[in-house]
Amino acid sequence: MTEKIEDGVRGHYAGDGLMDRLVAALVEMGHDPDDPPAEAVSQLDQMHIRGAAATTELHDAMGIGPDDSVLDVGCGIGGPARALATRLGCPVTGLDLTPDFCACARELNYLLGVEDLVEIVEGSALDMPFDDESFDAVVTQHASMNIEDKAALYREIARVLEPGGRFGFYDIMQGPGGDVHYPAPWAVNPEISFLAEPDAVKALIEAAGLRQLKWEDVSEKGLAWMAEQKAAREAKAARGEADGPTGPSVLMRHGAAEKLRNIARNLHEGRIVTILGVFEKP
Ligand SMILES: C[S@@+](CC[C@H](N)C(=O)[O-])C[C@H]1O[C@@H](n2cnc3c(N)ncnc32)[C@H](O)[C@@H]1O
């Protein structure tokens, strides 16, 4: 079953020509694609609600420092991993299932000169190719909704963490408002979508042996961010300016507008919630 789901996930996120589209987007934004500013790339490489600000918020909530070795599970094209390595100088390993994303993440690491700090490993979160107690911190953002066997996910995370290490996540979970509207950015139908309710997730993380330090429903921040984005787009349109490339429009080649409308609707209607959590391994 896991194999079938993981094939579905790879197919969903597959994106040949992704690097070419990112380069075209950087040119359209007015940057030299051979030497783009990191801030410009960070507008395109964060595949979660609230972009780079949410990434910084999570890493700060975990108290990650320059001497920590960090694993980012489901790292996508490496935006959060690069942001952390660049800001704090710590070594980050990004693990992801999707080959196209791993290839793109490595190219972006070279382009931004962080290839010595950020290593990208292709593999499954359910069978991580790492020894026990390999990392001081493990983070994950917006990847667990593609993972059915969450008990195995959190067991793997606890296994690779050092004693005293921290696990932090910023994830989409099932809200009280009912079934989600599809297509959504993480799945066009329920076949590769596995949202669990917050209490169930908390119980699974604790069952894996981790102890809760922080648990915050940050859905309201997501709604405020979406409203800001909408207002900015409308203001641009009123000035007669083009919308310009955005991360989602570049990364989700097909149906980005509908997927984005649905994620906003899902959050607004309480069908999904976003939770930031920090746990430690005793
Ligand atoms: C929405 S993207 C988020 C990427 C990144 N965390 C970010 O916030 O920019 C979800 C990512 O999770 C990865 N993923 C899903 N299931 C996975 C699994 N079982 N093992 C490893 N990666 C997985 C996908 O390949 C995809 O890159």
Concise account of the structure shown:
With 282 residues, the protein is of the alpha/beta class. The chain has 11 helices and 7 strands. Strand 4, helix 7 and strand 5 form a beta-alpha-beta unit.
Question: Would you kindly provide a written description of the structure presented here, covering whatever features stand out?
Answer:
This protein has helices at residues 2-13, 18-28, 38-42, 51-62, 79-88, 99-111, 150-160, 198-207, 219-238, 247-251, 256-268; strands spanning 70-73, 92-96, 118-122, 135-141, 161-174, 211-217, 272-280. It has 282 residues and is an alpha/beta fold. It has a single domain (2-222, 254-280), classed as Vaccinia Virus protein VP39 (Rossmann fold, 3-Layer(aba) Sandwich), CATH 3.40.50.150. A seven-stranded mixed sheet has the order 3-2-1-4-5-7-6, sandwiched between helices. Helix 4 (51-62) packs across helix 5 (79-88). The longest helix has 20 residues, at 219-238. Bound molecules: S-adenosylmethionine.
